[in-house]
Amino acid sequence: MIDQFSDARQDLVPDTNRVGAGIAANDVPDTLPADLSGLEIAVLIPCYNEEASIASVVRDFRATLPGASIYVYDNNSKDRTVELAREAGATVRTEPLQGKGNVVRRMFADIEADVYVLVDGDDTYHAPSAPLLISKLVSEQLDMVNGARVTEIVEAYRPGHRFGNMMLTGIVAKIFGNRVADMLSGYRVFSRRFVKSFPALSGGFEIETELTVHALELRMPMSDVETPYKDRPPGSASKLRTYYDGFRILKLILVLVKEERPLQFFSIMSGVMAFIALVLAWPVLVTFLQTGLVPRLPTAVLSTGLMLLAFLSLTCGLILETVTRGRREIKRMQYLRVPAPGNRPRSVDTGTGGGTGAGAGTAL
């Protein structure tokens, strides 16, 4: 492992020992194009005990995006994360509710900008890729650009994490749409209308899944861009608990299926209960047809109850599908209230400014 770079300009050149292969340094611009320099850009960095890396992350993004506002939100760190982030030039705020999802919710609520860059504070993501992601977001009027991780460093992206990411991304792709290659990436660029229409209900690492499903459900324009990924610097440890957080993400996926695809969810439950009811009822029915008797009355009652529950579940699915459609329409209308990336809201003559146009100053 080589030493950290000593100055911000050197940080713009990827370290061949820590940056994943696949993207050359000259493939990404290190400054914003002139037509994007007027954008208000906010770099949002959630942190928890990242004293080994936070200063480098802040310096890298200050050098790459000199006009951007850089915010570090500390999540009850017990080391020198806050002190080092301030010394590096970031605006530091705190969020007492533990968990990355809680921090993202607070950041999205507090910060006003045209473009939001969300990145982890562990110094594993490639800061010089930010102008490319922002340019793609604005030029194509997208709402989310996801930094898909590319690396050959085993320590940076362990096989177990890689498999879990592929499995969870595949589940979401199968249910909600196959439009994201790396669902659990911590490096994303958002438009203002994405951020201000996102409810942020998750509390922990499952926030990335919620971000992805929100974009897929509203059919937002989005894209992936491959970005180099490197291992953590010496002295930095991952906060991700592989199995615990993996099961939390899987649980969230099931909850989102129930809430966003209720007809599918309750239809599956209905089908399972109906199948069990038929399996239990068949021998009882055969015996009744042969003898006219029902010797296993409890089994018959259980089968009848399961079939009733199956029809009740299907009915719930039909009702909730209508409710979900209404919720989706409301979220879509809220989303459309915010201008697309790169667009400014059109001025509206309210009739109170003494204008000479038709209808100016006319009482309603």
Kindly list the characteristics that best describe this protein.
11 helices, Glyco_trans_2-like, single chain, Spore Coat Polysaccharide Biosynthesis Protein SpsA, Chain A, disordered C terminus, alpha/beta, transferase, 11% strand, transmembrane helix
Structure overview:
This protein is α/β, with parallel strands linked by helices and 364 residues long. It has two domains: 252 residues, Spore Coat Polysaccharide Biosynthesis Protein SpsA, Chain A, CATH 3.90.550; 75 residues. The protein contains eleven helices and seven strands. The protein has a seven-stranded mixed beta sheet with strand order 3-2-1-4-6-5-7, with helices on both faces. Strand 1, helix 2 and strand 2 form a beta-alpha-beta unit.
Give the averaged pLDDT, no decimals: 82
Largest sheet: 7 strands, mixed
Strand order of the largest sheet: 3-2-1-4-6-5-7
**Tally of alpha and pi helices:** 11
Structural class: alpha/beta
User: Which descriptor suits the 3D outline?
Assistant: elongated
The name of the CATH superfamily of the largest domain reads Spore Coat Polysaccharide Biosynthesis Protein SpsA, Chain A
> How does CATH name the architecture of the largest domain?
Alpha-Beta Complex
Integer-rounded radius of gyration: 26 Å
Question: What is the strand tally?
Answer: 7
CATH class of the largest domain: Alpha Beta
Low-confidence runs (pLDDT<50, min 5 residues)? Answer: 1-26, 347-364
Q: Give the assembly state of these chains.
A: single chain
Residue share in helix = 40-55%
Estimate nothing, just give the exact number of structural domains: 2
The CA-CA distance between the termini, in Å, is: 71 Å
Strand content is 5-15%
- Secondary-structure element order, as H and E? HEHEHEHEHEHEHHEHHH
What name does the CATH topology of the largest domain carry? Spore Coat Polysaccharide Biosynthesis Protein SpsA, Chain A
Protein name: Glycosyl transferase
Region (Disordered): 341-364
Organism: Skermanella aerolata
GO molecular function, one term: transferase activity
